[in-house]
Amino acid sequence: MAPEPWLDLSTGVSPYAYPIGDLPAEAWSRLPEPEALRALEKAAALAYRASEGAAALAAPGSQAIIGCLPYLWPARRVGILGHAYRGHSDAWRAAGAEVDRVEDLAGLADRDVAIVVNPNNPDGRLVPAEDLHALARELGEHDGLLIVDEAFMDFVEPAASIIPAMPTRGVLALRSFGKAYGLAGLRLGFVIAPVELAKKLRAALGPWPVSGAAIALGAKALADADWLATARRKLTADAAALDEILLSAQFEIVGGSPLFRLAAHRDALKLFDALARAGILVRRFASRPALLRFGLPGSDADRARLRAALSFGATRK
Fold this sequence. Notes:
Elements: E1 7-8, H1 26-29, H2 34-47, E2 54-59, H3 62-72, E3 77-81, H4 86-94, E4 98-102, E5 113-117, H5 129-140, E6 145-149, E7 171-176, H6 177-181, E8 189-194, H7 195-205, H8 212-222, H9 225-248, E9 252-257, E10 260-264, H10 268-277, E11 280-281, E12 283-284, E13 291-295, H11 300-315
Helix pairs in contact: 2-8, 3-4, 9-11, 10-11
């Protein structure tokens, strides 16, 4: 029996949760007002530096958008760049599309839908925004769609995002509020898209896409640039501390982002099991058994627990 509570390092969610504080009672007792939803979406557009001609739409987590896009944008051939988050491929295959993985952007240009996770999950690969702009223009010439999943973009330099200079057709971007603000259970995410595509998405999401609590808290957090900057500094230090733990356990760090690290070890599966027995959950990959993905421990106690479990797992036969 694993010790409790579990230390969940499998998700890539920030260990620092934005303070909830006191939410107004009507956030729970009334249906959200359209004006409040629009204020939240305006805050998101400002925070993500949306270009003129693009709109931000709130959704109950970016996963909800991933699940509905195949039914709003029917496609026969879908390409995904590299080894990426499988939620995209699962959604499009469930809708009957032919999905394959390609290793470079040029291989995406002739697809009905092209998907780039940026920074990539799990290896943190970052495609320059100007290259994505060029791909979006190519896809737009034959009514294709580029989906850029920026779930882990919040702590990367803003210039890396496709959103500030988003083309006016053939592209949309996804942002995850819960990962950056440590509030995954709030179920809040955003899609940023050219206005005409945004209208289609808004109709599909309906008049009350997110809760009153998500609106009140999300609008406050997105306007709090100081909190986000402080969280970024903490995460930078936490990532360096995690790197030291992994290197001391004979891992090779092969990728990552400000919210996770991807590491290789010849005994990765054995260490995965040892961590699970110690009540620590990390992400493993069936197709790449030498790799494990680690989210960031956010306290000295959690780091000590991870270090001890890896040390014990390395000596266990």
